[in-house]
Amino acid sequence: MPSFDFLELPGLNPDELSPAVWAYIGDAVYELYIRCHILSAGPAKTNALHHVAIAMVRASFQAGLVTKLEPFLTEGELEILKRGRNVKSGHIPAHTDVLTYRHSTAFEALIGYLYLRGEHKRIKELLTQAIILGETAEHSE
Predict the structure, then answer these.
(1) What tens digit of pLDDT does each residue of 23-66 get?
(2) Is residue 128, in this structure, part of any structural domain at all?
(3) Is residue 8 situated within a structural domain?
(4) What is the pLDDT of residues 63-80, one digit of tens each?
(5) In a domain, 26, yes or no
(6) In total, how many domains does the chain have?
(7) By residue range, what is the domain housing residue 102?
(8) Which residue in the list 5, 15, 27, 97 is annotated as catalytic?
(9) Does residue 5 carry a catalytic annotation?
(10) Which residues contact 115 (CB under 8 A, 6 or more apart)?
(11) 2: how many CB neighbours lie within 10 A of its CB?
(12) CATH number at residue 49
């Protein structure tokens, strides 16, 4: 099996991949980021960590982040969101509606696209901002 670098995937051009693939990778990158963010607050029981993580990776939370992050995005990133939002999925989870699911997919597509381009610093900037915006919204409800 050929080896690969987890952070650098040479030979992969994200522009040649579908937005569904971007979202597939973005989902994993975002979940890992959230898990690490939660763990950075200090040790806790895995059940408690899981409940916090679930709240932050659910489709409705991600969809809300899309709107809040738009002012911080470049034109190119907005285009990636649009392409991600237009991904047609044969499966919409029972606990969400189509519009929410499409917006969360757009968010995941953006994160996946940036990851595949090797733009880790930009991912960190956006996800740091997303956490701030998400926590601010949580406390204002």
Answers:
(1) 999 999 999 999 999 999 887 888 888 889 999 999 999 999 99
(2) yes
(3) no
(4) 999 989 999 999 999 999
(5) yes
(6) 1
(7) 17-140
(8) 27
(9) no
(10) 25, 26, 29, 123
(11) 3
(12) 1.10.1520.10
